[in-house]
Amino acid sequence: MAFEIIETNRVSNNATYQRIKHASSSTKTDMIFGLFLPSTYEKSDMTPVLYWLSGLTCDDTNFAIKAGPAAFEEAEKQGIALVMPDTSPRGENVPNVDSYDMGVGAGFYVNATSPPYNENYHMYTYVTEELPRLLETEFALGCDNLKSICGHSMGGHGALTVALKQNEGQWTSVSAFAPICNSTDSPWGKKAFESYLGSVEKGNEHDATLLLSQQKEQVYDEILIEQGLDDQFLFQLKPEALEKAAQKVGQKLTINNRDGYDHGYFFISAFIKNHVAFHGERLTKKKRHLAVEKISAIGSSFSETQGKVITCKAMVARGPKQPLTHETITVDPPKAGEVRVKVIANALCHTDIYTLDGLDPEGLFPCILGHEAGCIVESVGEGVTSVVPGDHVVPCYTPQCCAPTCIFCQSPKTNLCPAIRSTQGQGIMPDGTIRFKDSEGKPIYHFMGCSTFAEYTVIAEISCAKISKEMALDEACLFGCGVSTGLGAVWNTCKVEVNSSVAVFGLGAVGLAVIQGAKTAGASRIIAIDVNPSKFDAAKSLGATDCVNPKDLPEGKSVQSHIVSMTQWGCDYTFDCTGNTEVMRAALECAHRGWGTSCVIGVAASGHEISTRPFQLVTGRVWKGTAFGGFKSRRDVPKLVERSLNGDIPVKHFITHRFDGVEKTNDAIDALHSGNCLRAVVKY
Q1: Is 371 a catalytic residue?
Q2: Catalytic residue among 143, 181, 375, 401
């Protein structure tokens, strides 16, 4: 379907507001609609959409101009799109009258059947069929009925009637501001129905109160209405009639009566965030449910492969500093204490590249890299009890055996379970053998106990963190390494307190996770340090209060001395997320005199050593490190996922690049090298 973007405005980060024009088959005119796309929008992803229907005299711009800032902010938070269609057809040949409540700007969201309006005024079909079809086809918005509807006044009437007429799953939720609730008993409605349809009686099928009273049971979990008590048009709106109909059929209806508010856009602006959140929560829940259904369909075929060798595709690292090769491999069934999983999504981590570049002293070739993934259990080996086929898991390179005799698992001081550390470092399974073979039958080494650059892999049961099936696996994979590491460094390793000052060196995914964790912990000052200033906007959006580019400092002034001068005595907590030993030293030396703690997160190249003057430690600074943020993998990753599902730990902003197919992993590596990539996620 042809369309033209006539205006584009950046709203925040990478979120955009566009005005789009297209030739409408419904109205036989050009129609324009506004479209807000959140920064997380990806055409390959299922992005829900909320329709906003405006009131009398409005066009496609009124809502965006007058209520857009608040609405767009909440839509960005919820990860949903907003579409704002015009209220009527427009053009030289479009019938019109000199009246604010009829004709242009007052289409009333019906299909006119009476001349002269019957040629162009088909706003019901436009909103319910043509516009959704365009958004699905061209923007992949609202697919699988991931759409909700809201509106104001005449648009509130439209939202309610559309949702009540199409009440078999076409819409996820509905709400309205000051809607015309009983339009056949309203002067506005009577005038519109007589002119557009030929009689008031023909408007019965567009009267929200009558439509609701005809229902046999509750059709939506809740209908939300916002009503100003100083609304000068309250006599036209009749919310009490809708309330009576809702009580009759058992429909939950919430009417928030607001003292001091009238019918205008100040009223909408005051409460629009609540409505966007109302819809966002329901759309997100539905999206998760749909994702679980689709993933469950994949698991239904696992019975055919259990106990058998699986042939699949993988990206094999044949040697250091060489591109991965796309190969057909075989994956053996799991042995005792092992789990075979189907990899659904994999996020690239710099540790994978570190090994591929030959910097890892334990790096073995040929091997299958990858350790940050979301997977489904395909089959389990003898003795496995914690997961079953069909479970969703995040493989964890830091296992948790939970054995009563494991002093590491039983201690609250560490997460470094050594149960399979020796074999993991040798690229083999705990029993000393290998599950991968190439097309010639030659073995391929495992990596970090995960090896997720393959469509199937085998991991130890004690490396499987079982998670909620509601979490999208292309987001859950982020908890397999970088994001968990950054958050845990703050919450577990350093235990950052409220009102602390924090400095973060390196603004990749781990560094930004540190900032996010520090903000959540209540840090009052967060200084973000990086030589790439393009990363500062993301840092600020997550909570950074100051940004420093060491390249901008005067010649001869070190970054540590600059930060000390910014804070008088240094920061309470500092974090190195670079793997550069000189930066590790800088982070320590700008930690607060007397009590500052500096945490090493980044992994340095083989053979590199850290150094500082002993006086830095004598004067009260503490130097420590963290692995996987101190999280006990099987216990804590499921909790992190639940917190993410609850909205406490948003992670989608870390995904800056997406690819489809395991063969695209080299493209993801190129993206990671580009300097503007946090996490590149490859869906298999």
Answers
A1: yes
A2: 401
Contacts for 56 with CB less than 8 Å, ≥ 6 apart: 87, 100, 101, 105, 106, 153, 154, 188
Is 406 annotated in the active site? yes
From 669, 625, 629, select the one nearest 649 (Cα to Cα). 629
Give Cα separations from 117 to 89, 95, 131, 155 (angstroms): 10, 6, 20, 19
Q: What separation in angstroms does the CA of 263 have from each of 43, 179, 191, 225?
A: 37, 10, 20, 13
Selected catalytic residue, list 312, 367, 375, 409: 409
Of residues 298 and 94, more confidence is placed in 94
608 is catalytic: no
Residue with tokens 């162009």: 120
Residue 34 pLDDT > 90: yes
417 counts as catalytic: yes
Q: Which of 58, 150, 312, 349 is catalytic?
A: 349
pLDDT tens digits along 431-455: 999 999 999 999 999 999 999 999 9
| Residue entry with tokens 């590790």 | 584
Q: Which of 231, 229, 221 is nearest to 278 (CA)?
A: 221
Residue in the block written with tokens 């807000």: 36
DSSP 191-203: HHHHHHTSSSGGG
Q: Is cis: bond before 116, omega within 30 of 0?
A: yes
- What CA–CA distance (Å, rounded) separates 318 from 489? 34
* Burial group, residue 138, by CB count within 10 angstroms (0-12, 13-18, 19+): middle
Q: Amino acid identity, residue 285?
A: K
**pLDDT recorded at residue 675:** 83
CA gap 129, 358 in Å, rounded: 56
- Tell me the per-residue pLDDT of 72-84, one tens digit each, with 9 for 90 and over: 999 999 999 999 9
d(CA 601, CA 442): 36
Question: What per-residue confidence (pLDDT) applies to 547?
Answer: 98
Would residue 181 show up in a list of annotated catalytic residues for this protein?
Answer: no
Of the residues 421, 423, 525, 619, only one is catalytic, namely: 421
Catalytic hit among 327, 372, 378, 461: 372
CB count within 10 Å of CB 381 equals 16
| Catalytic, out of 351, 398, 597, 626 | 351
Mean pLDDT of the residues in the chain: 96
Task: State residue 604's pLDDT score.
Answer: 85
DSSP SS3 for 103:
coil
Say how far apart CA 383 and CA 402 lie, in whole Å.
Answer: 15
